[in-house]
Every structure is written in structure tokens, then in C-alpha cells.
Specification:
The chain is mainly alpha-helical and 127 residues long. The chain has one domain. Helix content is 54%, strand content 3%. It is built from four helices and two strands; from the N terminus they run E-E-H-H-H-H. A two-stranded antiparallel ribbon has the order 1-2. Helix 1 crosses helix 2 and helix 2 runs antiparallel to helix 3. The radius of gyration is 21 Å and the shape is elongated. The N and C termini lie far apart (69 Å).
Length: 127
Amino acid sequence: MPADAAEIEAKPDGGKGKVRLLCIDDLDGRTRAAQLVSRTIDALTSDLGGAEHLSTGEQLLIRKIAITAAMSEDLAARWLMGQAIDPALFATLGNAEGRLLKTVGLKRVARDLTPSIDHYVNRKVGT
């Protein structure tokens, strides 16, 4: 066990010994879920201007968003494969994800969909 791992003296079930608190950094990152979480963390961090521009709280929120999104994605995939899922849990995860994204600064940004002059001319010339 790494020296910096957090420990608690008593186990939650009342047993003796130490309980090791795990964190994302303890994972080896090879599972698809861990890779999805890592990609989502990287994408959100980039969207918000990079890690150097984020507070510790914002970084923690991003990690929670990524985990919540991965759990929601898992439930969605299971449902699409025909498996039974808990719709209340799916809705709860979606609501939590939305609130976390708003807290960290999700913005709706309008995109200009007007075609360029070149695109318009090429479309007319091509007909």
C-alpha cells in the first residue's frame, strides 16, 4: 500500500484492521470505463481552458462529472442491448450530471451555421 494512501482504523462492518480508501489514481486505467472517464476528464479540462486555469474544486467537479457520465453511459448501453435497468437511477445520474456541468460552467454556445461564400458557390457550380 502506498504511504500516501488514506486509511481508516476500523472497517465499516465493525471488523478490525485498516480500510484503504481508493481513488481514481489507484486504477491501472486499462478498463473501458477508466479510459472513458480519463478521456472525459481530459476533454472537460480542455474545454475549460486547461488544468492550469482550474481550481482544485473545479478539478474535483470534473472528475465527478466524468464518473457520473460513465455510469450513465453504461446504463444507457445496457438498456439499448435490451437489459433491464433502473430508470430512476438513470434519471438521477442524468440530473446529477447536468447540475455538476452547470456548476463547473457549462454554457450553451450558438454556432454560426451560415455557409461560407465558397461553399455556396461550389454548391451552385456543382449543379
